[in-house]
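Sequence design from tokenized structure. All designs in this work follow the same two-part layout: the structure record, then the generated sequence. An example of the structure record is given first.
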């Protein structure tokens, strides 16, 4: 097992990464203030992993309530969030009951938001089961639901007490979901960790083949990067925004196509290529850099062109981004491979050219 800490003063917490951790409920016990927990999961993950976690906790004297939600990004909404509150209230859960999110980023984001709101905040644990959630969404305390007008627009910063990433759960993850997670892994290399990017260039096929050592290394290294950024800028007043490379374009794809059509990582990959195209227009990357990034995303089996949405619609959707300030779009761009900045001086015309150059058949 590998472990690291997200350093946030009295709200610091460990991330445990290893194979078979779901079978070690004793790892969670020190983080439960009372002998009651609610596990929030979905109809796909529950049949695979809920019993194992619940049985282990019950064997240690914990009363376990289960909240099994419909699966899918299209259910990351107010109605499904309310289903969690129904379960919490229906089972007389108290402020000191712990909410355990067992699943991918959708369950983690929604469970975390429920935990932040229920009785103004209950203890929360992340048990991520997708590559994307193990490398990104379970760490850092961003929780949210979607709104028809924009992704993750209603939410809270709310840190978990512990993150338990059982890498053996990735064995049941569909290939397309594994690739989606790789988009966020590659992101860390592109924005701040060039040696990791080079490692990925040598090992991307091993990751796709689910080589356990390669996966463990990539998950740990991603979490180290995320933990450093979050510790430096928990509330995204500065550096944390860099974690959103490709996301402003990507969120426009996810919202524009209808939640669940494009996977989050797929939209981030295509959005990254749009940010790369804009960085190239500004002269911050050269053609070799562009081809290098494109090649790695292609090898990870990710899209390098965006969804066929009208450019005006892209711009309209992008203006709902949380990084917009005084109506100005702030975009994460690359100043060389391995280094990112937030830039607010791109004209609409420049952004249009970048998007158009990355649309299918461009
Ligand atoms: P997801 O939660 O939808 O999971 C992907 C699919 O895999 C789902 O169908 C799920 O049921 C299934 N699944 C999960 N674990 C499985 C397993 N072990 N075996 C088989 N199937 C499994 O998607 P995701 O990619 O994990 O997360 C995407 C979400 O995360 C988006 O909503 C995105 O906005 C959010 N996100 C949040 C942050 C953050 O900082 N909070 C960061 C990045 C992404
Ligand atoms: N996924 C972006 C962040 O956590 O800040």
């Amino acid at each position: 097992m590998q472990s690291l800490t997200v350093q946030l003063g009295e709200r610091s917490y460990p991330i445990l990464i290893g194979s078979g951790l779901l079978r070690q409920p004793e790892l969670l016990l020190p983080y439960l203030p009372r002998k009651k927990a609610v596990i929030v999961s979905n109809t796909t993950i529950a049949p695979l992993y809920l019993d194992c976690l619940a049985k282990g906790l019950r064997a240690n004297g914990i009363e376990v309530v289960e909240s099994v939600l419909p699966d899918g990004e299209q259910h990351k909404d107010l109605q499904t969030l309310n289903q969690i509150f129904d379960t919490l209230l229906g089972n007389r859960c108290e402020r000191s009951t712990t909410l355990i999110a067992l699943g991918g980023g959708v369950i983690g984001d929604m469970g975390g938001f429920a935990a932040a709101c229920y009785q103004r905040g209950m203890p929360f644990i992340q048990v991520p089961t997708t590559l994307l959630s193990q490398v990104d969404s379970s760490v850092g305390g961003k929780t949210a639901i979607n709104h028809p007008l924009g992704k993750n627009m209603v939410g809270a910063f709310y840190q978990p007490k512990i993150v338990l990433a059982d890498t053996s759960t990735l064995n049941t993850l569909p290939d397309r979901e594994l690739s989606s997670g790789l988009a966020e892994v590659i992101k860390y290399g592109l924005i701040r960790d060039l040696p990791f990017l080079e490692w990925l260039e040598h090992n991307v096929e091993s990751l796709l083949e689910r080589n356990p050592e390669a996966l463990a290394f990539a998950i740990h290294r991603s979490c180290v990067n995320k933990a450093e950024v979050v510790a430096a800028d928990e509330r995204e007043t500065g550096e944390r925004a860099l974690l959103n490379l490709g996301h402003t374009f990507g969120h426009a794809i996810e919202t524009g196509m209808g939640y669940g059509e494009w996977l989050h990582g797929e939209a981030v990959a295509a959005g990254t290529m749009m940010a790369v195209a804009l960085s190239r227009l500004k002269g911050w990357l050269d053609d070799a850099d562009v081809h290098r990034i494109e090649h790695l995303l292609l090898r990870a089996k990710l899209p390098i062109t965006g969804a066929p949405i009208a450019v005006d619609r892209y711009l309209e959707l992008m203006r709902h981004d949380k990084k917009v300030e005084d109506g100005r779009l702030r975009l994460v761009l690359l100043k060389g491979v391995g280094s990112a900045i937030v830039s607010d001086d791109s004209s609409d015309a420049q952004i249009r050219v970048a998007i158009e150059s990355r649309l299918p058949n461009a």
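The chain has a mean pLDDT of 97. We note this feature because it recurs in several other targets discussed in the main text.
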